[in-house]
Structures are given as C-alpha cells and as structure tokens.
Amino acid sequence: MEPLEGEALERHLEATRPKRMANLEAANRRRRSKAEEALLEALRRLQARGERVTPTALAREAGVHRNTASRWLKRMRS
Asked: Cβ distance 62 to 46 under 8 Å?
C-alpha cells in the first residue's frame, strides 16, 4: 500500500477524525482515572503516617506531576 498524499490524505484524515478523537478521549479518561486512584491512595498513606498533605508531598507519593496533584487537591478541598 502506498502512502496517501494530498487530497487523498486530507479525505482520509477527515474521515477518521471521529474515531481518532474517541480513542484519545478514552485514553485520557483511563489516564485520569489511574492518576486519581494513585492520588487517593497517596493521600491515605500520607494521612496514616501523620504527614502534612501538600501538593508536592502528594505528587511525590502518588508518582504524578505536582500540577496534577495540586488541581486534584483543590477539587477535594472545595
């Protein structure tokens, strides 16, 4: 099969866009769910050890980016 070029490539990309977007959205939901599970477990561990819960400590414990931990923590506190 030869690579698509020009208008054929554009038509193909346009036709497959909904499926590609659905795949990306599903992957994002799985990633977000995995991060939230890790953050919740990390929160429990920090609290069990009596440590201060900060975005930095939470991120380190959960293995996620500090911004992810900070946003999650703000949502949990509101």
From this structure: no
Residue found under tokens 């909904």: 18
Mean pLDDT of the chain: 96
Residue 57 class from Cβ within 10 Å (0-12 exposed, 13-18 middle, 19+ buried)?
A: middle
Does this model's pTM top 0.85?
no
55 contacts 66 by C-beta, under 8 angstroms = yes
Domain ranges of the chain: 40-78
Dihedral angle, C-alpha 9, 10, 14, 20, nearest 10 °: 50
Please give the pLDDT value at position 24. 96
Q: What tokens does 50 get? A: 């009596």
